[in-house]
Design brief:
This protein is mainly α. Helix 9 (227-236) packs across helix 13 (327-339) and helix 10 packs across helix 12 (290-302). It has helices at residues 14-19, 40-46, 77-92, 108-120, 126-143, 154-162, 169-188, 207-220, 227-236, 239-251, 255-259, 290-302, 327-339, 348-358, 363-370, 388-403, 417-425, and strands at 51-53, 58-63, 66-72, 266-267, 272-276, 283-287. The protein starts with 13 loop residues before the first helix and ends with a helix.
Length: 426
């Protein structure tokens, strides 16, 4: 029987296959399959085991399926090599990467300060920046301002979630979303290596929890101001507070909206208000009642054209982050006690306007007056000017309900072509 011959195969290394069997040269040249030729020299200086991760533009190396980063490829490669030599023994021993991740340590205090600074220079409204500052003050001390940001784990975020137990569900939802956005932003800005593990306990309130709280709140008090209550508030208010009450019910204003209204936003000759909302800078339009114009005229005439109409007695802004300096809220609290309606808050004026106006006007009309974003379907993207007679009808309807005046539609029939041209093109 013929003997079976075995076939011997010889495996070649990548260096032999590229150079025809000759071992790698002393210059430690990178094979021509290297995808980033402009980084060849930088890679040689850093370390043969480090590779550039172009998604994050960091020198990186994998160990047991996890990628570790050691510095930006735009920085001198010697920095990445030093960070690699410092951190790699701990990674191999299972201790993990040293705090600070990519060559530097960052504390929770530094991370939060950088986030607030980025928001302040991102073009958002000042009131949004103040809200971010207020939430950061609630988040930082609980996590530990001097803690390494990358050392935070599920226990820390569970403790943070427990510290919000006395807050309303909507406030907890905002705080949860802001916390997640802060660390997501930090990971994208390369301040931390990855988004932390929040754990199962750091969850936002469920929808049924928010609805149950809302129903319970409505059982305790009604957020709507009746015409009788509004008349009592007006009778007991001074001149400044009367103007604030009327314009807030007229156009659904809040304290932050009142703080930015200037004489340039109000046309006394025809009674129209053309401004933008402080919170989101959405344009808003409304027709002011005769009672509103009479109430704000004394303050309108003494203010500069671009100066706020409503200020404190000392000329300071009426909206801010300091809870002890909220003139509108504090003065309304004193007024509601005097008028016998202690269960109401100032923002109920805005809630009442929205509810009453929606019984006559369509939702987009109410949004135009209140400064909300319109439903951006394909038709609304082409609309350049909203019909003024619809806004006029909504404002006059609210006036008739809250002040008991006679009301009729501003226009019973469709516009004539000439009248439409005057309203659209001016």
């Amino acid at each position: 029987m013929p003997q079976r011959t075995t076939r011997q195969t010889t495996r070649t290394t990548p260096a032999q296959s590229v150079s025809g069997g000759v071992e790698k040269s002393e210059k430690n040249e990178v094979p021509p399959v290297w995808p980033y030729p402009h980084l060849v020299e930088r890679r040689r200086k850093a370390d043969p085991g480090l590779t550039p991760h172009m998604g994050s533009r960091q020198w990186s190396k994998q160990h047991k399926g996890k990628r570790y980063y050691f510095g930006s490829i735009d920085r001198p490669p010697e920095e990445a090599l030093a960070e690699y030599q410092r951190s790699w023994p701990g990674i191999v021993d299972g201790r993990g990467k040293s705090p600070g991740g990519r060559g530097r340590a960052i504390s929770v205090r530094q991370l939060l300060n950088q986030y607030v600074h980025a928001k302040a220079h991102a073009g958002v409204s000042p009131f949004t920046v103040e809200k971010v500052r207020r939430y950061v003050r609630l988040i930082g001390p609980v996590l530990g301002l001097d803690r390494d940001a990358e050392s935070l784990g599920p226990e820390d975020f569970a403790r943070l979630r427990y510290s919000w137990k006395s807050y309303a569900p909507n406030t907890v939802l905002d705080l949860n979303n802001y916390t997640r956005s802060i660390f997501k932003w930090a990971a994208q800005r390369d301040l931390i290596e990855a988004i932390p593990n929040y754990g199962p306990d750091f969850r936002p309130p469920r929808l049924k929890e928010r609805e149950a709280y809302k129903e319970d709140k409505q059982l305790r008090r009604s957020p709507l101001i009746t015409p009788e209550t509004f008349a009592s508030l007006l009778d007991n208010a001074d001149a400044w507070m009367r103007a604030v009450l009327l314009i807030s019910m007229n156009c659904g204003f809040g304290p932050s909206d009142l703080a930015i209204i200037t004489p340039a936003h109000i046309r006394l000759r025809d009674g129209w208000l053309d401004a933008s909302r402080a919170k989101n800078r959405v344009a808003r339009l409304g027709e002011l009642w005769p009672e509103t114009l009479d109430a704000i005229r004394p303050f309108h005439t003494i203010a500069g054209r671009k100066d706020p109409i409503f200020t404190t007695r000392g000329g300071h802004p009426i909206a801010g982050d300091d809870p002890l300096r909220q003139p509108v809220k504090n003065r309304f609290d004193r007024l509601r006690v005097k008028a016998g309606c202690e269960n109401h808050v100032f923002y109920d004026l805005r809630r009442t306007f929205s509810t009453v106006a929606l019984h006559m006007a369509e939702p987009n009309t109410v949004k135009i007056i209140m400064g909300h974003t319109l439903n951006r379907d394909i038709t609304m993207t082409y609309v350049q000017r909203y019909p003024k007679h619809k806004i006029r009808d909504a404002c006059r309807f609210v006036r008739s309900v809250m002040l008991g005046t006679e009301w009729k539609r501003a226009r019973e029939t469709a516009l004539t072509p000439k009248a439409a041209a005057r309203e659209i093109f001016g």
